[in-house]
Amino acid sequence: MNMINLLLFPIIIPFFFAMILLFFKEQVVIQRVLTVIGLALSLVASIWLLVTVKAEGIQTVTLGSWPAPFGITMVSDMFSALLVTTTILITFFVVLYSFQSIGIERERFFYYPAILFMITGINGAFTTGDIFNMFVFFEVLLIASYLLIVLGGEKRQLRESIKYILVNVISSALFVIAVAYLYSIVGTLNMADISVKIAEINQPGIISVLAILFLIVFGIKGAIFPLYFWLPGSYAAPPIPVLTLFGALLTKVGVYAITRTYTLFFVHDIGFTHQFLLVLSLLTIVAGCIGALAYFDLKQIIIYNIIIAVGVILFGVAQMNTSGLEGAVYYLIHDMLIKAALFVLIGIIIYVTGTSNLREMGGLIKSHAALGWFYLIAAFGLAGIPPLSGFIGKLLIVKGGFEADNAFGSIVLLVSSLVVLLSVIRIFIYAFWGPQNPDYPLPVTSKRTYRQLMAPAVLLVLVTVAYGVGTEWLMPYISDASDVLRDPSIYINAVLKE
Amino acid sequence: MKTNDVILQTTTKVVFFIIFLFSIHIFFAGHYTPGGGFVGGLLTTGAIVLLLLAFDLKTIQQILPFNFTIVTGIGLLLALGTAAGSIFFNVPFFTHAFDDFTLPLFGETSLHTAMLFDSGVYLVVVGSAITIIQSIGGDD
User: Fold this and answer.
1) pLDDT (tens digit, 9 = 90+) per residue, B37-52?
2) pLDDT above 90 for B96
């Protein structure tokens, strides 16, 4: 069956279910059931899309039956199809985790619709082939995230959401300004067409300026050095399931946008633009490492690990060779999965101990052995110990760095892995080893809740393990994705065919 | 002390309908002249806000017994439904259709599915704007 609208299904289905949920504000059970059904259907659609893209190449549809540069084109290449599938998969597990952890009060106030609207925005931003449409989908996901960050109305959430909204409003305004500049130069908004037009004028100075402006815009969203300042405070405020969604998905949209623009638009003056990206990505890694070691707070340690990962992925992108880009794609998906798993696991640790301060914990392995071992697997996966999922991605990125004569950067990357390992193992040692801290007895928690929290966490960890062990089977998909990034003409031909 | 605002309330009763009709006019004229779902919706909201100023929140909720969150939801469904109808004909999403019809009262009329999408926008704008005003105004 030939379905030309197939690539829109992962966007439309969550959108549709979010609307339906608006009618059932108070009926929490109906909301839960519908959300799970909606996400399951989206997951099926996205896997179907993935198979289709693998079999038939890049899928495009230009909305409203208009010819390509004039209508809004939606483009699903392997890179975006993989990201869309990962997004829905993670959301599915986080929603299961939410049932026990988010609390009925939040569920009754548009929690699930907000998640589904956010997924709509994220999938849309991954799929769109139009730069202004990307802005619109950014706003869709941001406005839903504003609700999620403030939902509950705790004092800390109110304070941090003001910062979060302020920063994002400013970066959105910059995004519009950047699109306006770009439009005044090339006269088109279709991303494939922009790429053609920039190649025609051979990237004069003004386009390089724009490249930096786009890096600033997406850098604020994706938290690169020195624009990450808002992230640690804001992400620590909302409850764990929301933090998991933010940490696993939101910054990655910024990273995706940088990757897309820096492999499709700004490829004619790599000496300047990509060098700039390279330096910033290394500084991002360093800043993240410092933060990850500095804290004794579970949430902050993992939050700073997000920043490190953003730096690692962008370092891969900045190489612009096969290994670097393959590594970046592989590592991006790995990082989404592993961050979701880690946040969910530390959420359980916080639930069990009643605190997020490492100094007040100890001896959990005696009472919660499964939690401890799954946390250890996830921690090793994050640090990149073979055969777990973090290994191949980082290996390819480091290889790409050496091939592109950025030996120094590659060494920084390898050292950062040690820091990452140290930061997450510290959690393991403090929380699970040693005797139970006598000053801080464990609060009374329900075994049933604990088990229901563990189920999605265990499944997520198993997915990351499968992602690492199954590298051999996944590599064709990853290399399809990086081929499009390395050679923009594949993308352009798919969109502007005939 | 209770103020007597009989002049305001009487004027409102007349002016409300003028504004409301104008908003409907703006809404329907959107395809050929400036206007459309967004301004139409805002004008309708403006008319309702005038009612809110002249009377109080409770009275208005009795006159217009809608849950405006639901109105927003219906509007969204209408907009998405119009765009998604194309899926069933296997043409690209958002492909609109139009044709000329001879209607009993209006005679020769061109009907376009963009109209349905615009009605969705109209309902979303009215629903969300009134929700904002009601929840801020009803907050003690």
Assistant:
1) 999 999 999 999 999 9
2) no
Alpha helices by DSSP H, A102-204: 104-107, 111-127, 131-150, 155-186, 191-201
Do residue B92 and residue A64 have CB atoms under 8 angstroms apart? yes
Interface of A with B (CB under 8 A): 2-5, 8, 12, 15-16, 19-20, 22-23, 25, 61-65, 71, 74
> In 3D, which of A459, A437, A337 has the Cα closest to residue A390?
A337
Structure tokens at A319: 């190489």
pTM over 0.90: yes
CB distance A22–B70 less than 8 Å?
yes
Compute CA A98 distance to the chain's CA centroid, rounded to the nearest angstrom.
19
- The DSSP 8-state label assigned to residue A76 in this structure reads E
Q: Inter-chain contact B90–A5, Cβ cutoff 8 Å?
A: yes
In chain B, whose CA is at the least distance from the CA of A15?
B80
Domain boundaries, chain B: 6-137
* Nearest C-alpha in B relative to A60: B92
- Show residues of chain B in contact with A19, CB under 8 Å: 73, 76-77, 80
In this predicted model, what pLDDT tens digit does every residue of A38-92 receive, in sequence order? 999 999 999 999 999 999 999 999 998 888 889 999 999 999 999 999 999 999 9
Measured between beta carbons, which residues in chain B are less than 8 angstroms from residue A2?
Answer: 90
Contact between residue A93 and residue A456 where contact means Cβ atoms under 8 Å apart: yes
> CA-to-CA distance for B31 and A483, rounded, in angstroms?
44
> Are A19 and B92 in contact (CB < 8 Å)?
no
- Given a cut of 70, the residues of chain A with pLDDT beneath it are 1-2, 498
Using an 8 Å Cβ cutoff, are A255 and A332 in contact? yes
CA-to-CA separations, B38 to A187, A349, B23, B64, in angstroms, rounded:
27, 48, 10, 21
Q: At what angle do helices A488-495 and A471-486 cross, to 10 degrees?
A: 80
Which long-range contacts does B93-99 make (Cβ < 8 Å, 24+ apart)?
B93/A5, B93/A8, B93/A12, B93/A61, B93/A63, B93/A64, B93/A74, B94/A63, B94/A64, B95/A63, B95/A64, B95/A65, B96/A64
Please state, in angstroms and rounded to a whole number, the distance separating the CA atoms of residues A269 and A257. 18
